[in-house]
Amino acid sequence: MSEEKKMIVRDLGFGGLMHIPPLRVHHQVLRELANNFKLGENRLKTGYGSFKITPKRIGDALGIKASGDLFPTKVNYKKFSEDNKEIFRRFQGKTLKSLTDEMMDIGVGNEQDRLMFKRIFILYIQMAFLLPMTINKISPVHLTPIFEMDTITERNWGRACIEFYHQGRN
Question: What are the TM regions of this chain, as residue ranges (predicted)?
Answer without folding.
Answer: 120-139
